[in-house]
Amino acid sequence: MVARALELDLRFWVPAGVIGQAWRSGRRQARLAQLLNSALVDIVPLADREARAAGQLCGATRTRDVIDASVVLLARTQGVPAVTSDVEDLSRLDPDLELIRI
Fold first, then answer.
1. What is the pLDDT of residues 49-97, one digit of tens each?
2. What is the pLDDT of residues 2-55, one digit of tens each?
3. How many domains does the chain have?
């Protein structure tokens, strides 16, 4: 997927909280580190406004994962599909959002 994105000059927006969920050991995650440091990726902080919006989305959908909610909100803002392994969870937050399962 990353190779194809490079060919097409596509971008990825990654909420900072997603990195916290995925990151465990920099020595073992060299490929992930390389991707996150690439020009393809913009890491988006979870600032106060975004955190409140994610919390509100969780409240409205009776879910708990603020990081998943931040993924949904960022995808909506950018007008792009969300790339995820949590299709079911993200679908609960927004059944109309286009999702790409990995």
1. 999 999 999 999 999 999 999 999 999 999 999 999 999 999 999 999 9
2. 777 777 878 899 999 999 998 988 778 888 888 898 888 999 999 999 999 999
3. 1
Instruction: Identify the CATH number of the domain in which residue 28 sits.
Output: 3.40.50.1010
HEC assignment per residue over the chain: CHHHHHHHCCCEEEEHHHHHHHCCCCCCCHHHHHHHCCCCEEEECCCHHHHHHHHHHHHHHCCCCHHHHHHHHHHHHHCCCEEECCHHHHHHHCCCCCEEEC
pLDDT of residue 3: 73
Q: How far from chain centre, in Å, is Cα 40?
A: 14
* Domain range enclosing 24: 2-101
Give residue for tokens 């708990």.
64
**Are the C-beta atoms of 36 and 14 separated by less than 8 Å?**
yes
